[in-house]
């Protein structure tokens, strides 16, 4: 549906807000190929890595955050997503 809006109707926009149900590898890659910024929460039970591979994957809700990271975000790798693909 989004592709139709972009390519057929030519709607000008830069960002996409999505629900956590759309935070899948396929959907996120598609948004990036369209060169759109996307914002979506991750479900609390998603396994992620914020240590660049030095510790095992952990649940999103068990991550620790500094004050700066709470404000600006942190770079993480989501389990099941290619290793070179990180999100903030």
Q: What report would you give on this structure?
A:
This protein has helices spanning 2-7, 25-33, 67-72; strands spanning 15-17, 37-39, 47-49, 58-59, 77-78. By secondary structure, the chain is α+β, with helices and mostly antiparallel strands. Strand 1 (15-17), helix 2 (25-33) and strand 2 form a beta-alpha-beta unit. It is elongated. 5% of the residues are buried.
What's the helix and strand layout?
Elements (H helix, E strand, L loop, with lengths): L1 H6 L7 E3 L7 H9 L3 E3 L7 E3 L8 E2 L7 H6 L4 E2 L10
Parallel strand pairs: 1-2
Antiparallel strand pairs: 3-4, 3-5
From the alpha carbons, calculate the radius of gyration and give it in angstroms.
15 Å
Fraction of residues in H or I helices: 10-25%
Low-confidence residue ranges:
none
Largest sheet: 3 strands, antiparallel
Quick rundown:
This protein is an alpha+beta fold. About 25% of the residues lie in helices and about 15% in strands.
